[in-house]
Write a structure and sequence with these properties.
The longest helix is centred in the middle third of the chain and has 29 residues, at about 85-115. About 50% of the residues lie in helices and about 5% in strands. It folds into 2 domains: about 1-75, Glutaredoxin, CATH 3.40.30; about 85-200, Glutathione S-transferase Yfyf (Class Pi), Chain A, domain 2 (Up-down Bundle), CATH 1.20.1050. With about 200 residues, the protein is α+β, with helices and mostly antiparallel strands. Helix 1 (about 10-20) links the parallel strand 1 (about 1-5) and strand 2. Strands 2-1-3-4 form a 4-stranded mixed β-sheet, covered by helices on one side. It has helices at about 10-20, 40-45, 65-75, 85-115, 130-150, 160-175, 185-195, and strands spanning about 1-5, 30, 55, 60-65. The protein is globular. It is built from 7 helices and 4 strands; from the N terminus they run βαβαββααααα.
Length: about 200
């Protein structure tokens, strides 16, 4: 088994933080996105979508997409439960993880990919107007998240979960995308300080 990874890729970091929370160690093979290794024939044979992360199992099966990889390990290592337990909690964690993906993580990624000069070679064509639209979409979600965190200690409810992991990575990704959590979102700032203090957040 090995995990194809690149240190600066936010989706790859999602898996690393998850594995750290589970105290799971997996051999890592770096795919250098800056050197365009993800476009190589060899890596395309591993993951035809040319993205990281990807998990290759001992029998050659490849699982791509960060949450699919996390779900694989959740079945094998159910404790601590990072996708929730019980119907209501599982549903709430799933809902907020998807909210974070659709309304924060993806817009921040689009702002970064379409506006940052360093991404010009990877995002062809860069569409600056699309990047600006997504900056606005990300900022619109933060007050929604702030209201949620006024009523619960974590994004998915009472316990730390994959919803917190996705949201942490998205908010950390705001810095290179030249975005910032506004001062009015004090609950988001409090929560971010809390989860950033977990050892896994250093991954």
């Amino acid at each position: 088994m090995k995990l194809y990874d690149f240190g600066f890729a936010p989706n790859a970091r999602r898996v690393r933080v998850y594995l750290a929370e589970k105290a799971i160690t997996v051999p890592i093979e770096t795919v250098d996105l800056a050197a365009m290794q993800h476009k190589s024939e060899g890596y395309t044979a591993v993951n035809p979508m040319q993205r990281v992360p990807a998990l290759e199992l001992d029998d050659g099966t490849v699982i791509a997409e960060s949450m699919a990889i996390c779900r694989y390990f959740e079945v094998l290592n159910p404790e601590p439960a990072l996708f929730g337990t019980g119907a209501a909690e599982v549903a709430e964690v799933e809902m907020w993880n998807r909210f974070a993906e659709f309304y924060l993580f993806h817009p921040v990624a689009m702002a970064f990919r379409h506006l940052h000069p360093g991404m010009a070679a990877m995002e062809v064509p860069q569409v600056a107007a699309w990047g600006e639209v997504n900056k606005g979409r990300a900022m619109e979600f933060l007050p929604v998240l702030d209201r949620k965190l006024a009523t619960a200690p974590f994004v998915g409810g009472a316990r730390y979960s994959v919803a917190d992991i996705t949201t942490l990575i998205a908010i950390d990704f705001m810095k290179p995308a030249r975005l910032a959590v506004p001062p009015a979102c004090g609950n988001v700032q409090r929560w971010h300080a809390l989860v950033s203090g977990r050892p896994s957040a250093r991954m």
